[in-house]
Amino acid sequence: MEQGEATPPAAEEKGGEEEDDFGYRLFPDRNKKPQTFLVRSLFTFHNRCQLMLRMTLDTNPYAQLLLEAMKQSGCTVFNDRHFSCEDCDSCVSGGFDSATSQIVLCQNNIRHQSHMNRVVTHELIHAFDHCRAHVDWFKNVKHLACSEIRAANLSGDCTLMNEIARFKFGLKGHHQTCVRDRAIRSILAVRKVSKETAEKAVDEVFDACFNDLEPFGRIPHSKTDAKRAYKDFQNRDRYNANL
Question: How far is residue 212's CA from residue 181's CA, in Å, rounded to a whole number?
Fold first, then answer.
């Protein structure tokens, strides 16, 4: 899940008896009857969201690499089928609904292109993990933790410029700290577990998941890095085809 600027509420564990809604409360439009195209076209937020999404899919190397990798894995992504611009709770910018294999883009919270680029990339990493692995999103918090670590690490969430914008200035190991913190925050937003449970899950899988760089092959700290990773991925595909 991609977060907004506000800190999501940490839902406390109550003896394991409280029913978990798996974060669907943050995406209220998920339970509504889809609006007609004519009605949706009248909303500026929806139009802007669709235009920014198309720009991301057509030009952003992070997204382009992930789309190509998913296609090669047998999970081709279609704009109309796998993306949905919706109104969401103010604390989130996007989410991946594994039940429908659909990425939710929070049209009321995504206000500029660079933010859209980051949200789409973050959620495509979740979709890629869903495609390539048997991820138990709902019952195994370690699986969720692993994908949140990978999404924070590889999507550009923790680049130097983004952290400076959050008034967080880097020290040694700051990237890892950012990835860990954002993974924990994301788990707390969508699961009714204690902070201690979220921290334990992240810490137990952190090294393995932080070092799982597929499909990028590197941590893309900038768009230039992402372009190089995309080129390497395309060349790797050509090499494999000639084996």
Answer: 18
